[in-house]
Each structure stands twice: as structure tokens, then as C-alpha cells.
């Protein structure tokens, strides 16, 4: 059965005055279920508050827009309250309780990408809310909650029943939320727009890779990630993950063209990608992108914390490693053609600037 790799936009799941929650459905993007991957997006308006929750999946959060505050509670640890802003990546292992708050005029938008091998539904996140009409404690009898919290039943009924909104609420301007602490960010978040560049090609593009070295928590999540900026008309070299990793890509900004080639040299995807699109490249399939005039920016997760890629163009490509005689035999070409082929792309670029 052929898989549909076409890029898709998210759809609203729930929301209200404080903001909305969106997700990508495995029924529309089958590779989510096939690859045990899920994707969702949280958008908070001013004073929007995403109620405390935990998930059945480990994930990486990436701030697409705005500034705000996140509360994170790792198992059996104190709450960490961190300031977040555009470009921040946050690793969220299993069992983490989070909340999110926006007190700015600009909408706060957070992307979530994660793996679902242990989830209730393959290809989907399931959130368990601590409060609200679908909160965990609405399912217990008052007697059980009263004994668990050591509180009178009338107090329990107020605590469990007062919050009538599901998932996201809008707080009053006068409500004071906890202030973030600078030291709480250490080891919890990395700003990909400010981090040292792993790749910087003049007129080509730039890459920041998220791995266990710059954000150790991704080791617990089991995912790596990268933020890639491709200049206008530049090209990203054809390449594939050589460690059996699956790549999930969200287009942050701009537009461009993408081609993916799979088994037997068959082109399985050729399309235009624009901001908001999500698409998935299967294991070992080769992908390449060319940016439109305004450039192209994307954030990807890779299903291993320290991914390794093989590129099929440029100085470090596999072609340059193979001996001339092997290339001549493989391509069935004379020595002159092989020498001409080998002499091109002598730089170690993975991004190729537009032709002059």
C-alpha cells in the first residue's frame, strides 16, 4: 500500500476565549500512525492559560511565535517556571506535567512533536488534564478525593467542580501568575535562534541541531531536532537518515519545493510546501528542498536523539568517498565523465546557493 506523504495543515480540536489547541490527524496524514509520531499546536491569546496536564507521549515543544511562561514539573521534582519565547525548544519526557501562559498582546504559539510508541493511540497525543470538566478527579467519587487530599467533601466539590472550561481558559488581568526564574531555564530549554550554528553556508543556509550535548533532556525524550533556515532560491542537498531515523518537518516560514525519492528510485512526493505544513519523510528515503524567493525555514524532529545523515551531493557526499573506478563502473561512464562529476561541488556544503 502506498502511503500519502502530502503535507497537511493542522485542525482545531478545542478552544475558547483564551486560545485553541490544534492537531494533525493520522486519518489525514497516515505516516503519523505508520511512524508512531504525533504533532499538535497550542495557540494562546493574551491572558490565555493552558491548564495543567500530562501526556502519554514524550515530545519536543518549539515556540513558533510570541513570549510567555511555562510551568514544568518533572516526576518527583519541584515546579520549574521558565520564560519562553520564539525559537525556544523544550524537551518533555514521559510523566511531565506542564502548563502554559501568555500575558502579552502577541499570540503565543507552541508546536509539539513527539513519538507515540507507548501512547494509547498511535499517531496521536492523549492529554490527561488535572482540572476542568474532563479533569482526572472528576472521575473519582468525592469520598475517594476527600480521603486522598485529606479535605472535607464540600471543599473537594468546590475544587473539582468550579473549573467549567476545558483545556484552555482566559484569566483576568489582575490574576498574578508565578514569575519565571532565570536559573530554571538551565537544562530545560534551548533557543535555537540564538544557539551556536552547526552549519552556516554563505548565501545558502544555517542549521542548529538539538541533541544530547546542548539539551541533555532530549536523551530521555529519545528525539533529536533541528532548526533550518534556507536562503532564497538556495537548495538543501539530497540526503537521508542513515541510522534508521524518521524525520517529521514543520514549515515555520516561507515556501519552497520538496521532492522525496524512495524504493526503486520512485519519486513519492513532489509538491510545494508553505508555512504551517507538516510532512514526514520515511526511513532511508531521500529528501531535497529548494526555497522560493523569500527563503524557507523549518523545524524537524528526528526519531533518535543524535541523528546521523548521509548527503548525496557536496564534498562530504558518499560520491566523493567512492573510488573513481567504482563510479565509472556504477554509472557506466568513461573516465572523463567521472572526473568532471568528481570535480563539481568540492565544498562541504549541504546547502547550495542559487546559481549565478
TrEMBL record:
Descriptive protein name: Glutelin type-D 1
User: Which InterPro entries does this chain map to?
Assistant: 11S_seedstore_pln (IPR006044), Cupin_1 (IPR006045), RmlC-like_jellyroll (IPR014710), RmlC_Cupin_sf (IPR011051), Seed_Storage-Functional (IPR050253)
Membership in a protein family: Belongs to the 11S seed storage protein (globulins) family.
Pfam families from the xrefs? Answer: Cupin_1
Going by the UniProt record, its keywords in alphabetical order are: Disulfide bond, Seed storage protein, Storage protein
Q: Does the keyword Disulfide bond apply?
A: yes
The residue ranges of the Cupin type-1 domain are 3-157, 195-339
PANTHER family in the record: OS01G0976200 PROTEIN, OS03G0336100 PROTEIN-RELATED
**Residues of the signal peptide:** none
Q: Where are the transmembrane segments?
A: none
MF terms from GO for this chain are: nutrient reservoir activity
Q: SUPFAM superfamilies under this entry?
A: RmlC-like cupins (SSF51182)
Q: Does the keyword Membrane apply?
A: no
Amino acid at each position: 500500500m502506498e502511503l500519502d506523504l502530502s503535507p497537511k495543515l493542522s485542525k482545531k480540536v478545542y478552544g475558547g476565549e483564551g486560545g485553541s489547541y490544534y492537531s494533525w490527524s493520522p486519518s489525514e496524514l497516515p505516516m503519523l500512525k505508520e511512524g508512531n509520531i504525533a504533532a499538535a499546536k497550542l495557540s494562546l491569546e493574551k491572558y490565555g492559560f493552558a491548564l495543567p496536564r500530562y501526556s502519554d507521549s514524550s515530545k519536543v515543544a518549539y515556540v513558533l511565535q510570541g513570549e510567555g511562561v511555562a510551568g514544568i514539573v518533572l516526576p518527583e521534582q519541584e515546579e520549574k517556571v521558565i520564560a519562553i519565547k520564539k525559537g525556544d525548544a523544550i524537551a518533555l519526557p514521559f510523566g511531565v506535567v506542564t502548563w502554559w501562559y501568555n500575558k502579552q498582546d502577541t499570540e503565543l504559539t507552541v508546536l509539539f512533536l513527539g513519538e507515540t510508541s507507548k501512547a494509547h493511540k498511535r499517531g496521536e497525543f492523549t492529554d490527561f488534564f488535572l482540572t476542568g470538566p474532563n479533569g482526572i478527579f472528576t472521575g473519582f467519587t468525592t469520598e475517594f478525593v476527600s480521603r486522598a487530599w485529606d479535605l472535607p467533601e464540600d471543599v473537594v466539590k468546590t475544587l473539582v467542580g468550579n473549573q467549567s472550561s476545558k483545556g484552555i481558559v482566559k484569566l483576568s488581568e489582575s490574576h498574578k501568575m508565578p514569575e519565571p526564574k532565570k536559573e530554571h531555564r538551565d537544562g530545560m530549554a534551548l533557543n535555537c535562534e540564538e544557539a551556536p550554528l552547526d552549519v552556516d553556508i554563505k548565501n545558502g543556509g544555517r542549521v542548529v541541531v538539538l541533541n544530547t550535548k546542548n539539551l541533555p533532556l532530549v536523551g530521555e525524550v529519545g528525539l533529536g531536532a533541528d532548526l533550518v533556515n534556507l536562503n532564497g532560491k538556495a537548495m538543501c542537498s539530497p540526503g537521508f537518515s542513515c541510522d534508521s531515523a524518521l524525520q517529521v518537518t514543520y514549515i515555520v516560514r516561507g515556501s519552497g519545493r520538496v521532492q522525496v525519492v524512495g524504493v526503486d528510485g520512485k519519486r513519492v512526493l513532489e509538491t510545494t510546501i508553505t508555512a504551517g505544513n507538516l510532512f514526514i519523510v520515511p526511513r532511508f528515503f531521500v529528501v531535497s528542498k529548494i526555497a522560493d524567493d523569500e527563503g524557507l525555514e523549518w523545524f524537524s524532529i528526528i526519531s533518535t536523539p543524535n541523528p546521523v545523515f548521509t548527503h548525496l551531493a557536496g564534498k562530504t557526499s558518499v560520491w566523493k568517498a567512492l573510488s573513481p573506478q567504482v563510479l565509472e563502473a556504477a554509472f557506466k561512464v568513461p573516465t572523463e565523465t567521472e572526473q568532471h562529476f568528481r570535480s563539481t561541488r568540492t565544498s562541504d556544503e549541504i546547502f547550495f546557493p542559487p546559481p549565478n
